[in-house]
Amino acid sequence: MKPASFDYVAPRTVAEAVEALGDTRRKAQVLAGGQSLILEMHLQRIRPQLVVDINRIPELDRMSIEGDELRVGALIRHAAFEPADAVPGPLGTLLSRAVVNIAHPPIRSRGTMAGSFAWAHPASEWCAIGVALDATVEVNGPDGARAIPAGDYFLGPYNTARRPQELITAVRLPLLGENSGVGFIEHRRTHFCFAQVAVAAALTMNDGVISGARIGLVNSADRPVRARAAERSLLGTELGTLPKVLRLPDDHPFARAGRVAAQDDAAPVAEPYADAEYKRQAIAVLVGRTLREAASDQRARMAAREEGHR
């Protein structure tokens, strides 16, 4: 099949893009990386009357640290986060660990973080990280600019609080403190598949006691999930020596948090090769392992800091 016919514009400014999107006479789609949009147009599952190509808008192709947040412009490609030092601190580590799970190098060289937020696929790694970290989605439309908390942004599969005439201009992610550690683990059938389940985690510890936890679940409901019940189960927990065996003891706090996440936070949707019960089991296991990875990362950071002060 080939795409249905459509009109095409390539604005040079955000204002021009918003003006084009605001033309309600034609159903419009935004083109940035196009890694999902072009396929859907090719199959004619999406038939826009107007494609607004934002790739010539320089102000959208910027990434910066502003205060205690990382601001990622709408044209920043996935591949920008592959180097661990692209973003400082634990946040950079989390993003670099997650991004290698996104599709393949050619797709990562074109696709964008903002595009993932616009598409809102339940298996999106970026969307779950955004929910876990309380990210903010900046949009601009005919009624002006507004900021949408990630927790309010996702409404269901491919469904968000962004209005059709609005353009995502940036995603803001809070920087994680240096006493935080991060982890990301993904499970999928093959390297070419979407994640069946994935987990992002950030742990904050003081003197070996968990004082903060953020857990994001990928493809564990009809939208990205923040595992708040599992997070609460960890607060105030004093960690001893981390188990070196792959399987955590059932009474370990991370194993318990995994079971809480699977039963109380997740609402998995059955799909080929992974029914709901399989996904719950995978969630429980991956949450425990990802938390252990985050705790190990935090302790390594603290050890490196202490070594640097000697």
TrEMBL record:
Gene3D superfamilies membership: 3.30.465.10, CO dehydrogenase flavoprotein, C-terminal domain, Uridine Diphospho-n-acetylenolpyruvylglucosamine Reductase, domain 2
InterPro entries per UniProt: CO_DH_flav_C, CO_DH_flav_C_dom_sf, Diverse_Substr_Oxidored, FAD-bd_PCMH, FAD-bd_PCMH-like_sf, FAD-bd_PCMH_sub1, FAD-bd_PCMH_sub2, Mopterin_DH_FAD-bd
GO molecular function, one term: oxidoreductase activity
FAD-binding PCMH-type domain location: 1-178
Signal peptide range in chain numbering: none
Keywords: FAD, Flavoprotein, Oxidoreductase
Domain of life: Bacteria
Protein name: Molybdopterin dehydrogenase
Organism: Streptomyces colonosanans
